[in-house]
Amino acid sequence: MDFNEKDDSSEKTDTSKIDDYFKDAPTDEEPDTEGWSEIDQKAADLLEKAFQVWTIVEEDKENDIEYRKPTKKKQIEESQKLIDEARELNSTNKWVKNRIVELQEVVDSGKKKVFDGSYKLMIASVILAFFKFVLPGLKSCSKVDEITLLKATTRRQSMISSYTDNLKMADERVTQLEKGEEANPGLTKSQIKTDIKSAEENIKHYTKELKKYNELTDKKMLSRMKANKRKQGWNYFWKGIFYLICVALYYFVCFTPQFVFDKRKTEQKILAAGSGFVKSFWSIFTNALINTPNTTTRYKYSDGSTRTETDLKLAPIIGLAFKIGGPILWYLFNMFLLPLIVIIKYVRNFHLHI
Question: Number of folded domains in the chain?
Fold first, then answer.
C-alpha cells in the first residue's frame, strides 16, 4: 500500500484496510545512509525509535521483517512525540520524509475512533426517560394546585379512620394472645410472646400516627400533600434527566479508539456469531408458535346436517407476543442497566488501554 497517497476508505470502519497501515515500511531494502548528513541520520534514528515503541503483531522470520502497530495509548503518544521531533529537524532526505509520512499514517489510523454502540438503545432510552420520568414528573408538579382543601380534609379523615381501625385490631389481637395457648390453638408460648411483642410495637406506631393526624390541621395537611406531590414530581423529573445524561455519556464512551477496536476482532466475531444464533433461534421459535395450525372438527349427523367446530390455539398469540415483546424486554433490560453499561464501556475503551 502506498503510504504517500490518502486512502479515503480509512474514514470508514473497514479494519482490513486500516490494518494495512499497521505494517512496516513498504521498502524492501534498508536505506543507503552513505552521504547522509548528521540531521538525516538523527531523524532516521528517531523514526526507528518510534517504530520500536509499537507492539510486534507479526514476524516474517524468513525475510527478517517485523510488523508492528500501537496497541496502547501510551505507545501512540510516545511515538507521536518522536515523529514530531524528527519532523522538526527539517530533513530534506527523501527516505526520511517518506518514513515520517508512513509512520504518521499508522499513528493517525490508531487515533481514529469507531462508534461501536447501539443507536437503537439510545433512541429507546431517550423515549423511556422522557415518557416514563420527565413528562410524568412535570405533570405531577403542574397538578400541585389541583389539590384542594376538601381533598386534604378527606385525606386526613381517611388516615385517622384507617389508623383508628388498625389500633383497634392490634388491641384486640393483644387481648386474644394474652389468654394463652388454650385460646390460641396452634401457637406455642414462644410464638405467642413474639406475636404480643409485635402487636405492641404496632400499637405504639398506630398511636403515634393517630396523634399526629389528630393534631394536624386541614391547612397543614394541604401544605404537606402539595409538598409531597411536588417532591414526587421533581424526583421523577431528575431521574429522567439522569437517564438522558447517561445516554449522552454512552454516546461519547462508545467512540472506541481504532487501536482498541482492532484488538477486539476475535471478541467481535464471537459476539456477532452468538447474537446471530440467538436471533435465528428466537425467529424460528416464535414463527413455529405463530404458524401452529388450529384444529377443525366437522360433525355429521344422521339427518344429514353437519356442524364445524374450530379449536383456536393459543400458540399463535403467544408466538406473536414473544416475537414483539422479546426485543422490547431486551431493550428495557439494557435501558435500566445503562448507567452500568456506561461505566463498563468507559473502563474497557479508555482506562484499560492507557
Answer: 3
Residue 271 and residue 331 share a domain: yes
Per-residue pLDDT tens, the chain, 354 aa: give them: 333 333 333 333 344 444 444 444 333 346 666 778 889 889 888 998 998 888 887 877 777 777 888 888 888 889 999 999 999 988 888 888 888 998 998 888 888 888 888 888 888 889 888 988 899 888 888 887 778 888 888 888 998 899 899 989 988 888 888 888 778 888 888 888 898 899 899 999 989 988 888 888 888 888 888 888 889 889 999 999 998 999 999 998 888 877 777 777 777 778 778 878 888 888 888 888 788 777 777 777 777 778 777 776 777 788 888 888 887 787 778 778 888 888 888 888 776 555
SS3 content of the chain, % helix, strand, coil (to 5): 70, 10, 20
In a domain, 225, yes or no: yes
Look at residues 56, 90, 111 and tell me which one is the last residue of a structural domain. Answer: 111
**2 located within any domain:** no
Q: Tell me the CA distances in angstroms from 177 to 61, 167, 185, 199, one per residue in order.
A: 90, 15, 10, 10
d(CA 72, CA 75): 5
d(CA 21, CA 247): 33
Backbone angles phi, psi at 80, to 5 degrees: -60, -40
Domain presence at residue 1: no
Question: Do 124 and 230 lie in a common domain?
Answer: yes
Angle at 270 between CA 268 and CA 274, to 5 degrees: 115
Tell me how many degrees the CA angle 59-64-65 measures, rounded to the nearest 5.
50
Say if pTM beats, i.e. exceeds, 0.70.
Answer: no
DSSP 26: S
Q: Which domain holds residue 181?
A: 119-236
- Residue 249: all three cell numbers together: 455519556
Q: Which residue has the cell 423515549?
A: 127
End residue of a domain, out of 71, 88, 111: 111
